[in-house]
Amino acid sequence: MADTSNSVYVRCGKPVNELVMRLGVLQYEEINITISNADKSKKIPQTNPFLVQDFIKKSINRHQQIDNMRYTRQGKIQFTTKDPICAVQLLSLTKFMEIDVSTDLIWENISAPFLVADIPTTTPLEELSKEIQDKNDCLVVEMRRFVKPNSGKVTSPVLITILGTTVPETIKLWFIRQRIQPFADRPRQCNKCSCVYARSTHMR
Fold first, then answer.
1. How buried is 115 (Cβ within 10 angstroms: 0-12 exposed, 13-18 middle, 19+ buried)?
2. Do the beta carbons of residue 97 and residue 47 sit within 8 Å?
3. Does domain 9-14+110-182 have CATH number 3.30.70?
4. pLDDT tens digits for 36-83?
5. CATH superfamily of 29-108
6. I need a surface site. Which of 12, 20, 42, 155 has the fewest CB within 10 A?
7. What is the DSSP string of 165-203?
8. Structural domain boundaries of the chain?
9. Are 139 and 162 in contact (CB under 8 A)?
């Protein structure tokens, strides 16, 4: 995962595989991996399940930990597992039955988003992320600010996504214990300030 940041967005620079392995000591529901054709104009063809199983058994030595496999409407294959090592092995695939592929991790069910209000808009997100991780037992994977679409002004709430699905009741920032607000992971518009936000469940 490349380190990405700007004034309204910051993302953890740690490799995806490292973050997945850290799930071993955290609470989470399940890990979902998608496999796509490296040629974005093409889909992964649906093939005899026996042949797919044979390929996976030869490629993934933790294949017993795969809970489910399905073809998506977008022409991808999605694997579900609760085992971080199996997930990392799936993420490392570069070929799938002679097809060049790319893999992606779905962050839903392994991460938790929440809102923290009253964060000064002048506070750099990189500084905020470091403060949260230094003062709290969590790993920040993504942070976003809200922006008013008409004026482009940044507002004070910050959307924070941490690794694992356990959401704390409060977090400590600059000696201040702040209560967090739940966040519904779907596109929405704030009626009071006309801020628009939608979070993707995929991060590359």
1. middle
2. yes
3. yes
4. 999 999 999 998 989 999 999 999 999 999 999 999 999 999 999 999
5. RRM (RNA recognition motif) domain (3.30.70.330)
6. 42
7. S---SEEEETTEEEE-EE--SS-EE-TTT--EE---SB-
8. 9-14+110-182, 29-108
9. yes
